[in-house]
Amino acid sequence: MKEAVDDAVPTAVDILYYPNSTMIEFRLDGHAGVMTYLQIVQQVRRALLVGRLLPGDQLPTVREVVAKLAINPNTVLKAYRQLEHEGVLVSRPGAGTFIRQDVRIAPRPGQAALGAALARWMHRARREGLDDNDLRAVFDDVLRNEDNKIAAAQ
Amino acid sequence: MIWVAWRQHRFEAAVAAVLLAVLTGYLIVSGLQAEALARQLGLSSCDLTSSAGSTCSNALTSYMDSFFGISVLVRYVLIALPALLGVFVAAPLLAREVENGTNMFIWTQSITRTRWFWVKLLLLGGSAFSAAAAVSMVAQWWQQPFNQMYADGNWTFFDVVGPAPVAYALFALALGVAAGTAIQRTVPAMAATLFIFVAARFAVRLWRPWFEAPMTAQLPAPAGILRGVLQIASPTVGEAQSYVVYQPADRFWTFELIEMTIFLVPAVVLVVLTSWWVRHRVR
Amino acid sequence: MSGVAIESKGLTKRFGSTVALCDCNVRIPANRVVALVGPNGAGKSTFLRISVGLDEPSTGQIKVLGWSPQAQPMLVLPRIGFMGQDRPLYSRFTARELLELGRRLNPRWDGELAKARLDRIGIPLDRRAGQLSGGQCAQLALTMVLAKRPDLLVLDEPVAGLDPLARREFLQHLMEAVAEAELSVVLSSHIVSELELTCDYLIILAEGQIQVAGEIEGLVAGHRVLIGPRQGLEVESDQSVVRSTHTERQTTLLVRSDGRPPGPGWEEHQVSLEDIVLAYLAHPAARSLPRPEVLHKEGPTQ
């Protein structure tokens, strides 16, 4: 057992594995039904949106993420590759993985309007007597049907 | 691997070294004491096989009072040593590794099973050989003042002098390791080793007087002829002609070599068999 | 490093009259974390032991990193690290002495790595292995295999019997080691939920036979749960149906799917790895194996 150390002073171990104290820390939700690598992608996007991650910030290395979450390194690699493909991050060999300086963090156009439309729908559904679970069931059902239609059309 | 084997067995080696040191020390001390007393009583001038004068009988009785018990005790301890080696050192050698599962650890290091086996066996065999040879030589010196107390003379100490005890030790070692490898559980392997070793020793002991055709002598025998012989049939009393069947003293060392061979050959066979077993059959 | 970690053809193992493994054909790709799953007595330990030379096949052959562990042990042993069930070590040796053992018996031994790991975990070098807690002992055993700098780790139920924290720490360290070096790992376990996060290749072994072998991503994408109106029993003879359950009104199927949507009236859901494993284990006749030409193709698999 390591002895308790003054929190303000980074120990050698901390510096080795968490070099940037403002770095994002990933967490997994095992029951979300969303694939692990997508959760990482979404958490990076969300962090950018709310300003927890800024352009130029360094992301944890694959090794650091894996050492914390006990997941397969390929999962993290896949997430980082997708983010690189989307123009969110850039990987500099020998230096690390960084958020691009020119990353687009603005919310998608029309997102505010879509949110408002959804709120109105929710109001209506609640007036009809649906609770939270019912709302989700309706949403899942419609989403699935739409996905199936798209797949059938391909 | 030599370092690993040593580190693994250093406790047993230390215990054995202490025991042997104590034993050897006692042999030396008791041998010196017996020698001194024998000289004091003038026993060398007595011929115990012929009916002697009362001074010799008194001297012998007095000598035996002091040292007969010791000679028996020490002899039995020396006889037991090879069995202890086989049961407590050799049998657990492989069986304990398999029982604890540590064979899965050591046999997946970058070493072949064959090399692991031979290093351990040769280390153990070499130590056993050296220790047994040393004790045998000390025993050979030690028994000289004692064998006058016995009708069979130094034949009584056949098991503990010369090449025989070394052969017993190597046989016990080979038997123990083979049992441990075949049975792969420590306690049953120890029991099997003990049982088979004791049975083998007993059987060969019964066979020993007949290694070569014995000689016969009419009684009463000429003076000196029956000194230091191995008597096979006791002289019959009350018959018209009594005789004794025996092996003469000068056959002692020939018989030692025969006994050695009888135990060494199976030892070699067992070792070869075990090395094949280890390679192919042990889980 | 690309290629094949473990390859077996017709591998069969008999103990007396019991058949532990029956005609196992498998081609485990390298650079994966492979989960070997199956009920007790399925033959997982036997398979792993044969792959590191602790046992011999009765018939058939096995090659590890290209060589036979029985015929060419010195070409295999230095490149693999094995942790047996219950993680045995010499309990009277101190950690320092175990490292010395590793140094003397392994050509690629990295003593610095071993000491650094023990230091980081907090295991004093002069503590005897038998005095360590279960979790520390597991970490020490992991250190012993990682310091060999192997290309392949073979772990037989490495976290069985550990408390949840110790289990997690072990897996964290293992995944970190995989990220650091190009390490292949084959590990057997009962706890499927853990495996979904750490592993990317799955083998299901049941009653001595390989039931499922494939990339986890492909397996999850290639199976679906279909819920629909009650079907007749003829649906169970459909090749693609792994498991079917029925109520009066409804039939639930777990199927191998090729991506096409089901017919009208059928609801389609994604399946978790755990559900897939449980379904196959419940139906020993079902199979999901790579096509034969994939098995015997020479050369790199990707």
Query: How can the largest sheet of chain C be summarized?
Result: 6 strands, mixed
Mean pLDDT of chain A: 78
Gross morphology of chain A: elongated
Distance between the termini of chain C: 11 Å
Described by strand count, sense and barrel closure, the largest sheet of chain A is: 3 strands, antiparallel
Number of helices of chain A: 6
Do you know the CATH architecture of the largest domain in chain A?
A: Orthogonal Bundle
Helix content of chain A: 40-55%
Number of β-strand runs of chain A = 3
From the alpha-carbon coordinates, what is the Rg of chain A to the nearest angstrom? 20 Å
CATH level-two architecture of the largest domain in chain C:
3-Layer(aba) Sandwich
CATH class of the largest domain in chain A: Mainly Alpha
Total of domains of chain C: 2
Write the H/E string of chain A, N to C.
HHEHHEEHH
Write the CATH fold name of the largest domain in chain A. Answer: Arc Repressor Mutant, subunit A
- Structure annotation, total helices of chain C: 10
Q: Helix/strand/pairing class of chain A, anyone?
A: mainly alpha
Q: Superfamily at the CATH H level of the largest domain in chain C?
A: P-loop containing nucleotide triphosphate hydrolases
Structural class of chain C: alpha/beta
CATH superfamily of the largest domain in chain A: Winged helix-like DNA-binding domain superfamily/Winged helix DNA-binding domain
Helix content of chain C: 25-40%
Q: Describe it for me?
A:
The complex is a heterotrimer of chains A (154), B (283) and C (302). Chain A has helices at residues 12-17, 36-50, 62-69, 73-85, 111-127, 132-153; strands at residues 58-59, 89-92, 96-99. By secondary structure, chain A is mostly helical. In chain A, strands 1-3-2 form a three-stranded antiparallel β-sheet. In chain A, a hairpin with a 3-residue loop joins strand 2 and strand 3. The longest helix of chain A has 22 residues, at 132-153. Chain B has 283 residues and is mainly alpha-helical. Chain B has one domain. Chain B has seven helices and three strands. In chain B, helix 1 runs antiparallel to helix 2 (54-100), helix 2 (54-100) packs parallel to helix 5 and helix 4 (113-142) runs antiparallel to helix 7. Chain C has 302 residues and is of the alpha/beta class. Chain C folds into two domains: 4-217, Rossmann fold; 223-282, no CATH class. Chain C is elongated, with a radius of gyration of 21 Å.
